[in-house]
Design brief:
The protein has about 550 residues and is an alpha/beta fold. Helices cover about 30% and strands about 25% of the residues. It is globular and about 65 Å long. The mean pLDDT is about 95. Its cofactor is Mg(2+).
């Protein structure tokens, strides 16, 4: 049997077992990194000691206003210091943080506030009109509103509600945080942008937030004192957990309200930004920035990009500018990034399209995931031949608890012991996953599957094209055919015939777009192109 059979007295106790939570990192940083910069935004510069005190005041003030453990506190905020503080202050009083997408229409905001039962909402003055309309549309009790002025950006308080700094002033900087007793307790509630029907409420636990954040330290090869620019909205998978991880590293969160090329270049040059995440559209913005908006810098900026594979042309242009791009992939249900295209030394010699082809892979599981793979409809592993398609599935410690008040959808998502993503992919012989498409974005033309991502990659290489999205257009003969929506660069004038000819030289005939529409593309707050809107437009062409 061996001595392991007799484990008398070797039980978990207060000394050797503490619930994992990102809150612990800020408690530690307040001592270890007390005088180092924690949060920077224009003239707002707070050390870890000050950050901790502000977070403690927020937690204490929420308790005074009747917030109890397990209650929901919502925010409708851009990436400003208060949004970072809420990531710690709300869970520090035992509550659950619900960061609401600032671009949602009042009807959806009302649904989220009713469904999550928020007790308090912290709201930026810019979004108060939408919130006011939402309150009128709510079925249940309205939450208390705290207005968060952003004087740095000239967004001043309206004065109808208590202002955030007054709220903090009412709190206790020495408030004793309510730490989770069980790491399975909920830390955050995130509503997925449903392209059909109502958004679903994804529930995160403290353990998952802690482990996903730690994942990214490893995957991003971070060393102490990173300087992180908030481009990914903090309402999007809690900013991919990055704000939670910064205190662990003694890092600095540099807030960015409006995502422009000038703001990003200025932050890199003036604040020494070392890391940021963003959709490929952000990379595109930097590549095509006018000379007047650019700044020189002499360090490499590490960038996580996700949302869609960056086009080879974008990668080829941005890497020599001083950015190292790592493609990551994930969903709200897995706390943001969960796979990474881990770079191998044997790829160092690759250039141009060959390098971009590897960088466009979603890659392999980050360390907190026990298994990420691609399966067929019977949940069997697909051949790793770079051709067979299946669905990406996840299992591990960075998967959500489930969907709030929706046991049917939760059971469906977790069928067979894995989280089902709905993303269609191939797997290369080295196990690296590469998305072919969202299940709903695959174009099936005359029985042939066409990857919209592949067609977009070709069109993006055209010198006149700034952005493009390809969707299915109904077709009497073929069922559906590819239709491209294109934004041209300023001063460029490629025609529909030019782009179709360009695509036909590089793609099989059936994959080439049959129609090209020139217009501005509809986008989500994170810069993802809203293909469902384009599909609707394509139907009426």
């Amino acid at each position: 049997m061996g001595w392991m059979a007799d484990e008398t007295g070797l039980d978990k106790n207060a000394a050797n077992h503490v619930a994992l939570t990102p809150l612990s990192w800020l408690k530690r940083a307040a001592v270890v990194y007390r005088d180092l910069p924690a949060v920077v935004y224009g003239t707002h510069r707070k050390t870890y000691g000050e950050y901790y005190a502000r977070v403690s005041r927020l937690a204490s003030a929420l308790v005074q206003r009747g917030v109890k453990p397990g209650d929901v506190v919502a925010t409708i905020l851009p990436n400003i210091p208060a949004q970072a503080e809420a990531h710690f202050g709300v869970p520090a009083c035992g509550a659950v943080l619900n960061t609401i997408n600032t671009r949602l229409e009042p009807d959806t905001i009302a649904y989220i506030l009713d469904h999550g039962e928020a007790k308090v909402v912290l709201c930026d003055p810019q979004f108060l009109p939408a919130l006011a309309t939402a309150l009128d549309l709510m079925q249940g009790p309205a939450p208390e509103i705290i207005e968060v002025a952003d004087d740095q950006a000239g967004v001043h308080a309206h004065g109808h509600y208590m202002e955030y700094e007054a709220l903090l002033a009412s709190g206790d900087p020495d408030y004793d945080w309510i730490m989770p007793q069980d790491e399975w307790e909920s830390i955050a509630l995130n509503y997925t942008s449903g392209t059909t029907g109502r958004p679903k409420g994804v529930v995160y636990h403290h353990r998952g937030a802690y482990l996903n954040a730690m994942n990214q330290v490893i995957s991003w090869r971070m060393t102490l004192h990173p300087r992180y620019l908030t481009i990914v909205p903090l309402f999007h998978c809690n900013g991919w957990c990055h704000t939670w991880l910064m205190p662990a590293m003694g890092g600095t969160v540099i807030c960015c309200r409006d995502i422009t090329a000038k703001a990003i270049f200025d932050a890199i040059a003036d604040e020494g930004v070392t890391h940021f995440g963003g959709a490929p559209i952000v990379l595109n913005t930097l590549v095509h920035a006018p000379e007047a908006d650019r700044r020189s810098f002499d360090h490499t900026v590490e960038v996580f990009t996700a949302g869609a594979p960056p086009a080879p042309a974008t990668l080829a242009a941005i890497e020599p500018m001083g950015f190292n791009i790592t493609q990551v992939y994930g969903l709200t249900e897995v706390y943001g990034p969960a796979t990474e295209c881990t770079w191998k030394d044997e790829w160092d010699h690759l250039e141009g399209d060959a390098r971009a082809a590897i960088k466009a892979r979603q890659g392999v599981a980050m360390p907190a995931y026990e298994h990420v793979t691609v399966v067929d409809e019977q949940m069997q592993q697909i051949p790793m031949d770079g051709a067979t398609q299946g669905e990406i599935v996840f299992r591990g410690n960075g998967v959500m608890k489930g969907y709030l008040k929706n046991p049917e959808a939760t059971a469906e998502a977790f069928k067979g012991g894995y989280f089902h993503t709905g993303d269609i992919a191939i797997q290369h012989p080295d196990s690296y996953v590469q998305i072919s498409d969202r299940a709903k974005d695959i174009i099936i033309s005359g029985g042939e599957n066409i990857s919209s991502v592949e067609v977009e990659g070709v069109l993006m290489a055209h010198p006149d094209v700034l952005l493009c999205a390809v969707v299915a257009k109904p077709d009497e003969k073929w069922g559906e055919v590819p239709c491209a929506f294109v934004e041209l660069k300023d001063g460029h004038d490629a025609s529909e015939a030019d782009l179709i000819a360009f695509a036909r030289e590089r793609l099989a005939g059936f994959k080439s777009p049959k129609k090209v529409v020139f217009q501005e593309l509809p986008k989500t707050s994170t810069g993802k192109i809203q293909k469902f809107e384009l599909r609707t437009q394509a139907k009426s062409l």
